[in-house]
Amino acid sequence: MNNSYNHSLSASSQLTQKSVNRCFDGEQHYYSHESTSTKTPMTFSVYLPDEALAGRRCPAILYLSGLTCNADNVTHKAHFQQKCSELGVIFIAPDTSPRSAGDSDSNDSGNNSHDVPNDERYFVGQGASYYVDTTQAPWAENFNIQSYIVDELYDLLRSEFPIDTIGITGHSMGGHGALLLGFKFPSKFVSVSALSPVCAASESAWGQAAYTEYFGDDKSLWSQADASKVIETVGQQYSSILVDQGAADNFLAEGQLQTSKLQQACEKAKQPLTLRYQAGHDHSYYFIQTVIGDHIEHHWRMAQIS
Fold first, then answer.
1. Distance CA 58, CA 72 (A)
2. 188, 261, 180, 266: which is closest to 221 by C-alpha?
3. Helix (H, G, I), strand (E, B) or coil at 81
4. Per-residue DSSP letters for 114-129?
5. What is the rounded CA–CA span in Å between residue 165 and residue 99?
6. Helix (H) and strand (E) counts for the chain?
7. Contact 279, 291 (CB under 8 A)
8. DSSP label at 4?
9. What are the φ/ψ torsions at residue 188 (nearest 5 degrees)?
10. In Å, how far from its chain's centre is CA 50?
11. CB distance 147 to 283 below 8 Å
12. pLDDT of the residue at 101
């Protein structure tokens, strides 16, 4: 751990710094805080290029991770730090859901005794928030991740770090979250992209199982938590969005991602979409490593013209 720089949090800061590591021309940080949205501790990682460490305002990317992931997956496996270092971009990766004490080493602040509900299915419960605010018991007390991301964490990040603009991206369930939140709250984000996103959650087996638990039988709430349906409803919000999809992705073949629904929604909404099918690539972080540089550049370019 490199202690040469300790982010100068305000005296009233809600954040606890967990670790700092020098990485290229910047530092990789982890923080935890007590969330009022989830009523649990939450953890996130932040890559700060040297420009940000020196106090210069930089564009930021908020990355939403996929099913079963936490802040570690993209931070350890996606290899985004070098590109962010080169361009002077802040990269933020929150956890995917609230968790019970001890369920995630990176998310345990040591004082969480709350028993967060869970499910034995990996696509429901802890690690599977879908970045929505749930309405049904037992989920509704803790699973308010839409509010956590776009209100609580968003404001906290802006108050504590030298952020200029924020773009949003994500992978799989996180790609769904990036598209959903980007189009529901366009005033908060200057750019949107996604990697292998779940494009029509209300029509996929994963999403239907989760939404039955989270929203019950109210299909209007399902539609409001479906990225393609939201895009079709709200219309064009961005000059361009970038989506990459592995052509050899088994989840695409199984119908979980339904990328064609996103393309159709963007056509109806007149939302410019750059959709790239990457030959031979699957759903893994090897695919993410391959295209993450293009996504960082996409958000950096959008920040320059915002």
1. 23
2. 180
3. helix
4. ------SSTTSBTTB-
5. 29
6. 12, 9
7. no
8. S
9. -95, -20
10. 23
11. no
12. 80
C-alpha distance from residue 198 to each of 25, 178, 220 (Å) = 34, 10, 19
Give the residue among 200, 210, 215 at the shortest CA–CA distance from 123.
210
Locate the DSSP E strands across the chain: 16-22, 26-34, 41-49, 58-64, 90-94, 163-170, 191-195, 241-246, 273-278
Cα dihedral value 179, 180, 182, 188, nearest 10: -160
Phi, psi (rounded to 5 degrees) for 186: -65, -20
Catalytic residues: 172, 249, 283
Residue recorded with tokens 């923080």: 31
HEC sequence for 195-222 = ECCCCCHHHCHHHHHHHHHHHCCCHHHH
Give the tokens for residue 278. Answer: 């990457």
Domains of the chain listed by start with CATH number: 16-305 (3.40.50.1820)
pLDDT in tens, the chain (306 residues): 333 444 554 555 789 999 999 999 999 999 999 999 999 999 999 999 999 999 999 999 999 999 999 999 999 999 999 999 999 999 999 999 999 986 644 444 444 457 999 999 999 999 999 999 999 999 999 999 999 999 999 999 999 999 999 999 999 999 999 999 999 999 999 999 999 999 999 999 999 999 999 999 999 999 999 999 999 999 999 999 999 999 999 999 999 999 999 999 999 999 999 999 999 999 999 999 999 999 999 999 999 998
User: What number of residues does the chain have?
Assistant: 306
pLDDT (0 to 100) of residue 103: 61
